[in-house]
Write a structure and sequence with these properties.
The protein is built from 8 helices and 17 strands. The chain is an alpha+beta fold. It folds into 2 domains: 2-70 and 162-333, Aminopeptidase (3-Layer(aba) Sandwich); 72-147, Beta Barrel (Elongation Factor Tu (Ef-tu), domain 3). Strand 14 (245-250), helix 6 and strand 15 form a beta-alpha-beta unit.
Length: 335
Protein backbone atom coordinates (compact mmCIF):
# COMPACT_ATOMS: atom_id res chain seq x y z
CA UNK A 1 0.00 0.00 0.00
CA UNK A 2 2.91 2.35 0.73
CA UNK A 3 4.07 1.83 -2.85
CA UNK A 4 0.65 2.89 -4.11
CA UNK A 5 0.76 6.08 -2.04
CA UNK A 6 4.25 6.90 -3.29
CA UNK A 7 3.17 6.40 -6.90
CA UNK A 8 0.06 8.57 -6.41
CA UNK A 9 2.18 11.27 -4.75
CA UNK A 10 4.65 11.25 -7.65
CA UNK A 11 1.80 11.53 -10.15
CA UNK A 12 0.32 14.43 -8.18
CA UNK A 13 3.61 16.36 -8.39
CA UNK A 14 3.98 15.67 -12.11
CA UNK A 15 0.34 16.43 -12.89
CA UNK A 16 0.44 19.83 -11.20
CA UNK A 17 3.73 20.88 -12.83
CA UNK A 18 3.66 23.53 -15.55
CA UNK A 19 5.07 22.14 -18.78
CA UNK A 20 3.59 22.85 -22.21
CA UNK A 21 5.60 21.89 -25.29
CA UNK A 22 9.09 23.52 -25.27
CA UNK A 23 8.79 24.28 -21.52
CA UNK A 24 9.05 20.77 -20.07
CA UNK A 25 11.78 21.89 -17.62
CA UNK A 26 9.82 21.46 -14.38
CA UNK A 27 8.74 17.93 -15.26
CA UNK A 28 12.34 17.06 -16.15
CA UNK A 29 13.49 18.46 -12.81
CA UNK A 30 10.99 16.34 -10.89
CA UNK A 31 11.98 13.14 -12.72
CA UNK A 32 15.67 13.81 -12.16
CA UNK A 33 15.01 14.46 -8.47
CA UNK A 34 13.44 10.99 -8.18
CA UNK A 35 16.12 9.05 -10.09
CA UNK A 36 19.49 10.79 -9.62
CA UNK A 37 22.18 9.86 -8.67
CA UNK A 38 21.22 6.20 -9.08
CA UNK A 39 20.75 6.79 -12.83
CA UNK A 40 22.48 8.91 -15.43
CA UNK A 41 20.05 11.57 -16.62
CA UNK A 42 20.91 13.12 -19.99
CA UNK A 43 18.84 16.17 -20.94
CA UNK A 44 19.13 16.98 -24.63
CA UNK A 45 19.02 20.53 -26.08
CA UNK A 46 15.40 19.99 -27.21
CA UNK A 47 14.46 18.64 -23.76
CA UNK A 48 14.23 14.94 -24.31
CA UNK A 49 15.34 13.22 -21.10
CA UNK A 50 17.26 9.95 -21.33
CA UNK A 51 17.63 7.98 -18.06
CA UNK A 52 19.87 4.90 -17.83
CA UNK A 53 22.41 2.96 -15.80
CA UNK A 54 25.70 1.54 -16.95
CA UNK A 55 25.26 -2.23 -17.15
CA UNK A 56 27.68 -4.70 -18.66
CA UNK A 57 26.27 -7.29 -21.07
CA UNK A 58 22.55 -7.13 -20.29
CA UNK A 59 20.51 -9.89 -21.92
CA UNK A 60 17.97 -7.38 -23.25
CA UNK A 61 17.66 -3.61 -23.25
CA UNK A 62 14.09 -2.32 -22.96
CA UNK A 63 13.11 1.30 -23.46
CA UNK A 64 10.01 2.59 -21.70
CA UNK A 65 8.93 5.90 -23.21
CA UNK A 66 6.41 8.56 -22.20
CA UNK A 67 6.05 12.23 -23.08
CA UNK A 68 6.44 15.05 -20.58
CA UNK A 69 4.67 17.97 -22.25
CA UNK A 70 1.09 19.10 -21.76
CA UNK A 71 -1.25 21.05 -24.01
CA UNK A 72 -0.40 24.71 -24.36
CA UNK A 73 -1.16 27.99 -26.14
CA UNK A 74 0.81 30.91 -27.55
CA UNK A 75 -0.33 34.46 -28.36
CA UNK A 76 -1.23 34.99 -32.01
CA UNK A 77 -2.96 38.40 -32.13
CA UNK A 78 -3.91 41.15 -29.69
CA UNK A 79 -7.40 42.61 -30.21
CA UNK A 80 -8.14 46.30 -29.60
CA UNK A 81 -10.53 45.33 -26.77
CA UNK A 82 -7.72 43.55 -24.86
CA UNK A 83 -8.45 39.93 -25.78
CA UNK A 84 -5.53 37.76 -26.89
CA UNK A 85 -6.16 35.38 -29.75
CA UNK A 86 -4.27 32.13 -29.16
CA UNK A 87 -2.62 29.44 -31.24
CA UNK A 88 -3.15 26.04 -29.57
CA UNK A 89 -0.13 23.78 -29.07
CA UNK A 90 -1.87 20.42 -29.26
CA UNK A 91 -5.45 19.21 -29.42
CA UNK A 92 -7.26 21.49 -26.99
CA UNK A 93 -10.95 20.47 -26.95
CA UNK A 94 -13.63 22.84 -28.20
CA UNK A 95 -15.58 22.83 -24.94
CA UNK A 96 -13.06 24.07 -22.33
CA UNK A 97 -14.32 27.67 -22.17
CA UNK A 98 -13.96 29.69 -18.96
CA UNK A 99 -11.10 27.69 -17.52
CA UNK A 100 -8.09 29.49 -16.07
CA UNK A 101 -4.77 29.44 -17.95
CA UNK A 102 -1.38 30.71 -16.78
CA UNK A 103 1.27 32.31 -18.97
CA UNK A 104 5.04 32.02 -18.67
CA UNK A 105 7.26 34.00 -18.06
CA UNK A 106 5.02 36.74 -16.59
CA UNK A 107 2.81 34.29 -14.63
CA UNK A 108 -0.27 36.28 -15.60
CA UNK A 109 -3.51 34.32 -15.40
CA UNK A 110 -6.42 34.63 -17.78
CA UNK A 111 -9.74 33.05 -18.69
CA UNK A 112 -9.72 30.72 -21.70
CA UNK A 113 -12.56 31.72 -24.08
CA UNK A 114 -13.69 29.61 -27.06
CA UNK A 115 -15.83 30.84 -29.95
CA UNK A 116 -16.68 29.85 -33.51
CA UNK A 117 -15.18 31.88 -36.38
CA UNK A 118 -16.14 30.96 -39.96
CA UNK A 119 -16.98 27.37 -38.94
CA UNK A 120 -13.68 27.04 -37.09
CA UNK A 121 -12.87 27.05 -33.39
CA UNK A 122 -10.96 30.10 -32.15
CA UNK A 123 -9.27 30.34 -28.73
CA UNK A 124 -8.81 33.58 -26.77
CA UNK A 125 -7.49 34.65 -23.38
CA UNK A 126 -9.14 37.34 -21.28
CA UNK A 127 -6.43 38.62 -18.94
CA UNK A 128 -8.36 41.68 -17.82
CA UNK A 129 -6.57 44.07 -20.17
CA UNK A 130 -8.34 47.22 -21.36
CA UNK A 131 -6.67 47.27 -24.79
CA UNK A 132 -4.11 45.52 -27.00
CA UNK A 133 -1.12 47.46 -25.65
CA UNK A 134 -1.91 46.49 -22.06
CA UNK A 135 -2.53 42.87 -23.05
CA UNK A 136 0.81 42.72 -24.90
CA UNK A 137 2.62 44.09 -21.87
CA UNK A 138 0.98 41.52 -19.59
CA UNK A 139 1.48 38.59 -21.98
CA UNK A 140 4.26 39.22 -24.55
CA UNK A 141 4.35 37.48 -27.91
CA UNK A 142 6.93 34.93 -26.76
CA UNK A 143 4.76 33.64 -23.89
CA UNK A 144 3.54 30.08 -23.35
CA UNK A 145 0.28 29.29 -21.58
CA UNK A 146 -1.23 26.13 -20.08
CA UNK A 147 -4.11 25.09 -17.83
CA UNK A 148 -3.67 26.60 -14.37
CA UNK A 149 -4.70 26.00 -10.77
CA UNK A 150 -5.71 22.33 -11.09
CA UNK A 151 -4.80 20.34 -7.99
CA UNK A 152 -4.88 16.56 -8.36
CA UNK A 153 -7.60 15.00 -6.24
CA UNK A 154 -8.10 11.44 -4.99
CA UNK A 155 -11.35 9.60 -4.48
CA UNK A 156 -11.41 6.05 -3.07
CA UNK A 157 -11.03 4.64 -6.61
CA UNK A 158 -10.04 7.48 -8.98
CA UNK A 159 -7.43 10.17 -9.57
CA UNK A 160 -8.59 13.50 -11.01
CA UNK A 161 -6.29 16.19 -12.39
CA UNK A 162 -4.74 17.91 -15.38
CA UNK A 163 -2.16 16.58 -17.82
CA UNK A 164 -2.63 12.95 -16.81
CA UNK A 165 -1.81 12.42 -20.50
CA UNK A 166 1.06 11.76 -20.22
CA UNK A 167 2.23 12.49 -16.71
CA UNK A 168 0.61 9.17 -15.70
CA UNK A 169 2.92 7.37 -18.14
CA UNK A 170 5.94 9.24 -16.76
CA UNK A 171 4.97 8.43 -13.16
CA UNK A 172 4.46 4.74 -13.93
CA UNK A 173 7.89 4.41 -15.57
CA UNK A 174 9.66 6.34 -12.80
CA UNK A 175 7.93 4.23 -10.13
CA UNK A 176 9.37 1.04 -11.65
CA UNK A 177 12.83 2.50 -12.24
CA UNK A 178 13.12 3.62 -8.60
CA UNK A 179 12.94 0.02 -7.40
CA UNK A 180 14.57 -1.75 -10.35
CA UNK A 181 17.52 -3.87 -9.10
CA UNK A 182 21.00 -3.22 -10.46
CA UNK A 183 21.70 -6.94 -10.73
CA UNK A 184 18.78 -7.62 -13.07
CA UNK A 185 19.43 -9.55 -16.27
CA UNK A 186 17.66 -6.94 -18.41
CA UNK A 187 18.51 -3.25 -18.56
CA UNK A 188 15.69 -0.71 -18.61
CA UNK A 189 15.98 2.79 -20.02
CA UNK A 190 13.54 5.61 -19.39
CA UNK A 191 12.97 7.95 -22.32
CA UNK A 192 10.88 11.01 -21.49
CA UNK A 193 10.18 12.87 -24.71
CA UNK A 194 9.37 16.51 -25.46
CA UNK A 195 6.88 18.27 -27.76
CA UNK A 196 4.61 15.29 -28.38
CA UNK A 197 1.43 17.36 -28.14
CA UNK A 198 2.56 19.52 -31.07
CA UNK A 199 3.60 16.52 -33.18
CA UNK A 200 7.04 18.09 -33.50
CA UNK A 201 9.11 16.11 -31.06
CA UNK A 202 12.89 15.85 -31.65
CA UNK A 203 13.29 12.16 -32.48
CA UNK A 204 16.47 12.50 -34.57
CA UNK A 205 18.24 14.09 -31.63
CA UNK A 206 17.17 11.17 -29.47
CA UNK A 207 18.53 8.60 -31.95
CA UNK A 208 21.86 10.40 -32.10
CA UNK A 209 22.26 10.61 -28.33
CA UNK A 210 21.36 6.98 -27.73
CA UNK A 211 23.70 5.75 -30.47
CA UNK A 212 26.55 7.90 -29.17
CA UNK A 213 26.42 6.24 -25.74
CA UNK A 214 25.69 2.76 -27.12
CA UNK A 215 22.17 2.42 -25.79
CA UNK A 216 20.70 0.10 -28.40
CA UNK A 217 17.20 -1.12 -27.51
CA UNK A 218 15.76 -4.56 -28.16
CA UNK A 219 12.20 -3.47 -27.39
CA UNK A 220 10.49 -0.08 -27.08
CA UNK A 221 7.31 0.25 -25.02
CA UNK A 222 5.27 3.43 -25.28
CA UNK A 223 3.29 4.25 -22.10
CA UNK A 224 0.41 6.65 -22.71
CA UNK A 225 -3.16 7.54 -21.87
CA UNK A 226 -6.06 7.00 -24.25
CA UNK A 227 -9.64 8.27 -24.30
CA UNK A 228 -11.80 6.19 -21.97
CA UNK A 229 -15.27 6.11 -20.57
CA UNK A 230 -18.08 5.72 -20.19
CA UNK A 231 -18.92 9.42 -20.02
CA UNK A 232 -22.26 11.22 -20.37
CA UNK A 233 -21.34 11.96 -24.00
CA UNK A 234 -19.88 8.53 -24.79
CA UNK A 235 -21.74 5.61 -23.22
CA UNK A 236 -19.96 3.03 -25.43
CA UNK A 237 -16.22 3.84 -25.29
CA UNK A 238 -13.41 1.89 -26.91
CA UNK A 239 -11.74 1.60 -23.50
CA UNK A 240 -13.32 1.59 -20.05
CA UNK A 241 -11.88 3.34 -17.01
CA UNK A 242 -11.42 0.82 -14.21
CA UNK A 243 -11.19 -2.27 -16.45
CA UNK A 244 -7.38 -2.39 -16.58
CA UNK A 245 -4.63 -1.21 -18.90
CA UNK A 246 -5.23 -1.15 -22.63
CA UNK A 247 -3.10 -3.43 -24.81
CA UNK A 248 -3.03 -1.54 -28.11
CA UNK A 249 -2.60 -3.95 -31.02
CA UNK A 250 -2.61 -1.14 -33.61
CA UNK A 251 -2.81 2.66 -33.67
CA UNK A 252 -2.40 5.43 -36.24
CA UNK A 253 1.40 5.26 -36.30
CA UNK A 254 2.35 1.63 -35.75
CA UNK A 255 1.23 -2.01 -36.00
CA UNK A 256 3.09 -4.16 -33.46
CA UNK A 257 4.31 -7.56 -34.57
CA UNK A 258 1.82 -10.35 -33.82
CA UNK A 259 4.38 -12.17 -31.69
CA UNK A 260 4.76 -9.11 -29.43
CA UNK A 261 0.97 -8.80 -29.17
CA UNK A 262 0.74 -12.43 -28.04
CA UNK A 263 3.59 -11.91 -25.54
CA UNK A 264 1.82 -8.94 -23.95
CA UNK A 265 -1.48 -10.80 -23.65
CA UNK A 266 0.27 -13.87 -22.21
CA UNK A 267 2.08 -11.67 -19.68
CA UNK A 268 -1.11 -9.98 -18.51
CA UNK A 269 -2.84 -13.36 -18.10
CA UNK A 270 0.14 -15.02 -16.39
CA UNK A 271 0.44 -12.30 -13.75
CA UNK A 272 -3.31 -11.58 -13.55
CA UNK A 273 -2.87 -7.98 -14.58
CA UNK A 274 -6.29 -6.59 -15.56
CA UNK A 275 -6.25 -5.59 -19.22
CA UNK A 276 -8.41 -4.80 -22.24
CA UNK A 277 -7.65 -4.63 -25.96
CA UNK A 278 -7.79 -1.92 -28.61
CA UNK A 279 -6.97 -1.78 -32.32
CA UNK A 280 -7.79 1.60 -33.88
CA UNK A 281 -6.60 3.96 -36.58
CA UNK A 282 -7.20 7.07 -34.48
CA UNK A 283 -4.52 8.80 -32.47
CA UNK A 284 -0.97 7.71 -31.68
CA UNK A 285 2.10 8.60 -29.71
CA UNK A 286 5.75 8.52 -30.64
CA UNK A 287 6.11 4.75 -30.85
CA UNK A 288 5.97 4.42 -34.65
CA UNK A 289 8.87 6.75 -35.32
CA UNK A 290 10.92 5.31 -32.47
CA UNK A 291 10.46 1.61 -33.23
CA UNK A 292 10.80 2.00 -36.99
CA UNK A 293 13.75 4.36 -36.59
CA UNK A 294 15.71 1.96 -34.39
CA UNK A 295 14.50 -1.05 -36.37
CA UNK A 296 13.32 -2.96 -33.29
CA UNK A 297 10.04 -4.27 -31.92
CA UNK A 298 7.67 -1.85 -30.23
CA UNK A 299 4.40 -1.97 -28.32
CA UNK A 300 2.04 0.64 -26.81
CA UNK A 301 0.24 0.23 -23.48
CA UNK A 302 -2.21 2.89 -22.36
CA UNK A 303 -4.21 3.99 -19.33
CA UNK A 304 -7.81 4.94 -20.17
CA UNK A 305 -8.75 8.49 -19.14
CA UNK A 306 -12.10 10.22 -19.07
CA UNK A 307 -12.14 13.77 -20.53
CA UNK A 308 -8.60 13.46 -21.90
CA UNK A 309 -6.97 16.77 -22.88
CA UNK A 310 -9.46 18.71 -20.75
CA UNK A 311 -8.39 20.71 -17.68
CA UNK A 312 -9.78 17.97 -15.42
CA UNK A 313 -9.44 14.33 -16.47
CA UNK A 314 -10.06 11.12 -14.54
CA UNK A 315 -8.16 7.84 -14.38
CA UNK A 316 -8.61 4.77 -12.19
CA UNK A 317 -6.13 3.99 -9.43
CA UNK A 318 -6.65 0.34 -10.35
CA UNK A 319 -5.60 0.97 -13.99
CA UNK A 320 -2.63 3.12 -13.00
CA UNK A 321 -1.24 0.46 -10.65
CA UNK A 322 -1.90 -2.22 -13.29
CA UNK A 323 0.25 -0.17 -15.68
CA UNK A 324 3.10 -0.12 -13.15
CA UNK A 325 2.85 -3.90 -12.70
CA UNK A 326 2.80 -4.45 -16.46
CA UNK A 327 5.94 -2.36 -16.98
CA UNK A 328 7.76 -4.33 -14.31
CA UNK A 329 6.71 -7.71 -15.70
CA UNK A 330 7.67 -6.74 -19.26
CA UNK A 331 11.11 -5.76 -17.98
CA UNK A 332 11.48 -8.98 -15.99
CA UNK A 333 10.13 -11.47 -18.53
CA UNK A 334 11.13 -10.18 -21.97
CA UNK A 335 13.80 -12.36 -23.57
Amino acid sequence: MSGDKAAFGLLKNLSEAFGPSTLEDEVIRLIRKELEPDYHCLRTPHKNLLVYRDQKDPERTIVFQAHTDELGVRPYRYDPDGFIKLTPMGGIPKDVANHMIRFYPTHVRGVLVVRRERNQTAFFADVGAKNDAEAMKMVPYHSNGAYADVEMQESPTQLMGKSLDDRAGCAAIVSVMKTWPRESRNRIIGVFTAREETGNWPVTELYRNMLEINLLPDLIVNVECCPGGPTPGDPNPLAEVGKGIVLVNMDASYEPDSEICRFMEMLARKWRIPSQHMAVREGSGELGRLALGFGVAGYPITIPARYMHCPHSVISKHDFMACIRMIRKIAEDYN
